[in-house]
Design a protein that fits this description.
By secondary structure, the chain is α/β, with parallel strands linked by helices. Helix content is 30%, strand content 26%. It has a single domain, classed as Vaccinia Virus protein VP39 (Rossmann fold). The structure holds S-adenosylmethionine (SAM).
Length: 174
């Protein structure tokens, strides 16, 4: 983890009522239908994505904020959550996932491409990384700003994306 990211931990631990794009409309916007398989949710926050996926799917949420992970465990006692820095988790993990979610997470990283490279290596054959980042939103906790599509391409290089409701909704294939 980078110092700049670690400095933000206090903020994430204090602000637990974050309202994200990972709720109801997320899968529709991405035109994704999740039915079975395994899903790794990076920077999962309070685990709101766990609410909108089928019970049959295997879910693992990872976030470095103990406050948010505590809330996620309370909200979803039947799901698994790990409190760890995403880089460290991905470097040490040998699991395979059909889906990896990154909702409103990559803009909080010093090197989002590094996390995407590590995540890609954990995908099963035909797997997909998906998620969202805000369009052109400066904020002290945003270590990356995606001003336009050109910056999105340069900083995250998704295979496909749509711009909707002030977010870039993105997918990366294996
Ligand atoms: C804006 S919230 C999004 C939470 C969730 N994905 C959602 O959409 O509701 C960003 C999350 O990323 C987490 N985060 C930031 N940097 C991280 C890192 N290096 N490793 C793990 N989690 C991180 C924060 O703790 C925070 O919960």
């Amino acid at each position: 983890m980078y110092e700049k990211e670690e400095k933000l931990l206090k903020h994430y631990n204090k602000r637990l009522n974050y309202s994200s794009t990972a709720g109801g409309g997320a899968l529709g916007t991405l035109k994704m239908s999740l039915t079975t398989g395994s899903l790794l949710d990076l920077g999962c926050g309070d685990g709101r994505l766990a609410k909108v996926i089928p019970k049959e799917m295997k879910y693992l949420g990872v976030d470095f904020s103990s406050g948010r992970i505590e809330k996620a465990r309370k909200n979803h006692p039947d799901r698994k959550f790990i409190c760890q820095d995403a880089y460290k988790f991905l470097e040490g993990d040998d699991g395979r996932y059909d889906f990896i979610a990154c909702f409103e997470f990559l803009e909080h990283l010093v090197t989002p491409k590094r996390v995407l490279t590590l995540a890609r290596a954990r995908l099963s054959n035909g797997g997909v990384i998906f998620g969202s980042v805000p369009v052109n939103r400066g904020y002290f906790a945003h270590l990356q700003v995606f001003k336009d599509e050109e910056e999105l391409k340069e900083k995250l290089d998704p295979d496909s994306w749509v711009e909707k409701n002030k977010h870039f909704w993105c997918k990366w294939n294996v």
